[in-house]
Automatic annotation (TrEMBL):
Belongs to the ZMYND10 family. PANTHER family: ZINC FINGER MYND DOMAIN CONTAINING PROTEIN 10, ZINC FINGER MYND DOMAIN-CONTAINING PROTEIN 10. The keyword Cytoplasm applies. Pfam families: zf-MYND. It is found in: Apical cell membrane; Cytoplasm, Cytoskeleton, Microtubule organizing center, Centrosome, Centriolar satellite; Dynein axonemal particle. Plays a role in axonemal structure organization and motility. Involved in axonemal pre-assembly of inner and outer dynein arms (IDA and ODA, respectively) for proper axoneme building for cilia motility. May act by indirectly regulating transcription of dynein proteins. One of its GO terms (cellular component) is dynein axonemal particle. The gene is Zmynd10. One of its GO terms (biological process) is motile cilium assembly. Residues 382-418 form the MYND-type domain. This is Zinc finger MYND domain-containing protein 10. The keyword Metal-binding applies. InterPro entries: ZMYND10, Znf_MYND.
Amino acid sequence: LPPAEAEGLVRALQGTELRDIGGQGWLRQHEYVEKLNMHGIVSASAGQEHLLTELLVTYGKIPVLIEELISVEIWKHKVFPVLCRLKDFKPRSTFPIYVVLHHEASIINLLETMFFYKEICESAEDSILDLIDYCHRKLTLLAAWSANGQAAVLVPPQELQKQAETMEFEISLKALSVLRFITDQVESLPLSALTRMLNTHNLPCLLVELVEHCPWSCWEAGKLKKFENGTWHVVPPEDQVKMTKLDGQVWLALLNLLLSPECQRKYRFDGFNKSQLLKLRVFLTDVLIDQLPNLMEMQRFLSHLAVTEPAPPKKDLVLEQVPVIWDHILKKNSGKWEAIAKYQVKHAFSPTEEELKLQARRWAQTYSLDMMEALAPDKPHCRVCGVEAAKRCSRCRNEWYCTRACQVQHWQKHKPACNLMA
């Protein structure tokens, strides 16, 4: 984006009322966020993201993006289930959950790109507490995913349900990265933020759970598969001990939360927490430490923890801040979920054919397929057999195939999603 256009998009970002989600103004904001998200990715890859960082800080838009993230999450859990029960809600209109999920994914992706910088983290101010709570909910979802193999996303039919689950999974992984960047700044965070991460949510123990069960890694038909760059890959035997970026994010967050003097002073090393943390010792192999040498300090810390009784946390006489965005939105809209759903059926989610075509044209301008493919780290693979693919569905241009035979084989499963997207 030219600097002037980037500045205009940043300045246009604003909070959205819950009932306006899905409306024309909200869809325009989604386009702004998506353009800024793609701009951020391209700028970061070229080492030129300082302009966007400066704009977001100057105009105070990080709290706005966090508020938008929380609004979307509340809408998914409070309004969408009511919406699905309304008889006026047409079956073809189940597309809103995908637009909302994509909006959430775009915001968390933009925050992941930006939170690498200390000034962005500081510009979040008190809203950092709401972001920490959001990341905690997503990490809890990941831990549940590793236990159950899936997460609950209320979307029919089966093929669309699978896509929604994949998006929710990817959003949770982005939240893990954002949380790690927040832990990089423990010295400059408000005291309440540190207390919330360590004692209210007990994030060290939750991260231990992720190390143990590793939801982005699984065995299937005797082969190890890992989730990286948006897809599951079969890992060759010689690479199975390699640390992925996601593994690295968990270990770095643990290093930040456990080895910082301020964190050690505030964390409760009681019997349960101590036993959970000591589970990490079995994972700290020489091969792992060779890939992330800082883990040698973690190994020493755990060895010391095993034979000592840490002092109880020092109690500070401070007033603890609490997150306000989540509570404010819930309080403002409590008891109005059905009214909001009915309003949205009438004003947002019953588009005419002409309105759908107009929106499709706007999105086609926002999402340049050439740009999206240039951003993709890997070449596309066949949806059926997984080999490298050169053809895709000409109707929705969303699924890739190596041959027409694979496309025909997949058509019955792909048809509902294709109809929606086309």
